[in-house]
Amino acid sequence: MQIGAHVRDAEDPLAAAAEVGAEVVQLFLSDPQGWKKPPPHPRAAELAASEVGVVVHAPYTANVASTNNRIRIPSRKIVQQHLAGAAEVGAFGLVVHGGHVTKDDDPAAGIDNWRKFVERQAGEHGFDVPVLIENTAGGDNAMARRFDALGRLWDAVGEFGVGFCLDTCHAFAGGEELAGIVDRVRAITGRIDLIHLNNSRDAFDSARDRHANIDDGTIPPDELAAVVAAAGAPVVVETPAEGQARDIAFLREHAG
What residues does the Xylose isomerase-like TIM barrel domain cover (predicted)? Predict the structure, then answer.
């Protein structure tokens, strides 16, 4: 089990990882709020050759599920571009949020849009690295907030080899109990490829995506450690930077 962190220093992520004792590093390849194609990473060869595991997070703007052509089509493009960029840095996956449709849309349309994307990608040239769909905290018409919706999404895309990233803050804030969550997810997806291990600043089912350090949120730390122990997957903390080293050390002691 590798335990690491999302690092803010995209220029030298391995140095940033070493500072907090991370065995796996997550990074953005471009502005997480933008639409630009990621430039070549200056340390791509070093990252690809490193023993530190690497995972890339797609921009937050990407919404493959959207019924709006002006959002969905650029979303497909930016995910494809980041898949290529993730391969260049030796990443084991690209995390992509499940996305959502608007309140006036049928959620089935969003699921269908996801299927069209992964089916086309698989048929054309496959995936440069696996797409890891991440559960999200808010939105009644989200594709991956409630696990009943996640089940419908997985029925549509699971056959194409997509992976799953479980975010503990998102699950808790989205209204999913953490007790037994690993078994519930695996019953739906058959897999957990990555854990985003974050405490939540806000209450259960608040629909608010606000991360906290392990010892500074509304989720008991032992519940978070239990998720890590049960999943046995690589772990990334996306917690406030000043507490990341402490968070990693806690997980190594209590869940590793």
Answer: 14-253
